[in-house]
Amino acid sequence: MKKSIIYGLLLALLLPVSSFAAKVSGLYEAEIQVYSQKSSERELAMVSALAEVFAKVSGKKDAASTGKMPDALKNPNRFLQQYRYRALPDEDLQRELAVAKPGDKPQLLVFRFDKAAVNKALSDNGLPVWGATRPTALVWLAVEDEGRRYMVGSTSKEPLRQELLKEARRRGMAVLLPLMDLQDQMALSFSDVWGGFREAIEKASSRYNTEAVLIGRLYRPNGGDWQGQWTLLEGGFLKTWRGAGILPEELLDDGVAGAIEDLASRYAPAAGQKEGLLPVTVTDVHTLDDYARVSHYLKSLQQVSSVNPSRVEADRVTFELDIHGSAASFSQTVALGNVLTPFKPLPDEDKKPQVTWATGYKQVYQLLP
Predict the structure, then answer these.
(1) 65 is in which domain, residue-wise?
(2) Which of the four, 16, 46, 96, 307, has the lowest number of CB atoms within 10 Å?
């Protein structure tokens, strides 16, 4: 087995990554609405787009104003890879045209920035660089609009559904909306969410198996400003915050930005923090394909700079990983995927020498089927 793995290392590196972790796409892209294709307007939009990318990659809402990041915004072209214009969706276009000035041509300007340059700017300013593997949050959103009450689900026709998903994409947050089918309706009522009854919410959320639950309560009393309260539940942590605004979109921004920043504080690797080489042992590696699957999965994680096999014994392989951030942050990221799970020896296995050897390492995982 050991000889097969070592001889097959180069072949394994060529095999595709097999990962079922939550992946957030478009981290280095941003789109800004513009009203013409003038270069002056494009330059201003590029600054806003780059600031949005800095926030999205780091998980920090104020990333663009941290340290010397404002200097980076003075020359956004050095980060730019490409840009393109695209049409607004029909309903958005009609709404914009109704209030547009003569000669305006509302459209979207999409920017893509260089990953290496963005990451370096963040790291140089002490900000985390958070990869695409991120926890998914199930969002229970209860809304009261001048006496009308409703919940926002995955098939809701309410405009707030699209606005919430749009805001999640803009912030780089993986979200899931409940089905609001008969099972959800029997398990959880509007009053449960509105009252923040945690036990009922957690029980109803269990069917979705997400890493976090975000609970939102938005209301507008008597035509006044919108008010909101948000609660994030994740891994035993609980955080609650409030917001207010003229538009409900402002409240959605408060909710998503607050949630992603709180999650980043635990999952994103701390800037400048290095653990050095971290030994990681994986059990149930029986074939070369298994080895390739593990190796490529580990390399796909943002915190991992290099993966080197250091020991092979029976069906266990130990890798030495050069990681950014802490061992705890690494283990939290691994837990998001469906490739490895923390190793739990059977009761009668704790006397076997190979398990004693394996459990001496900091990180021990079992390869899932």
Answers:
(1) 29-124
(2) 16
